[in-house]
Amino acid sequence: MTINELQDQIIEEFAQFGDWMERYEYLIEMGRELPPFDETHRKPDFLIEGCQSRVWLYPSFNDVVITFEADSDALITRGIVALLVKVFSGRTPDEILGADLYFIDRIGLKENLSPTRSNGLLAMIKQMRLYALAYKSKTEHS
Fold it and tell me: Catalytic site residue 28?
């Protein structure tokens, strides 16, 4: 499934809910479904700057695709990072760098978050793209 197909699927899933209280519940549920986060990765190196809540993002790269593991100490934020992991994990650096994340606007996520959570969302995306850029650079120079 391509990133855009996955985004379309997310848009359809969120369209099933009538209001934002139901959508927040769905986000929280997505966060609960994140795989357990390895405690050895819960350190400052993997903490995302710019998030009000604490969000850890751990990348691993097998020379083809990047896999992300993530966790947060806040329920809704954990759901948001789970959404991003769903979209970006298992993708090549080029796919991540070239992705137009239109699902965020289409499901109304950004406009229904507090300004601090919205900034956190942007910080998470930025960090995932920085990892993709670093891995892309690494493969080009090896």
Answer: no
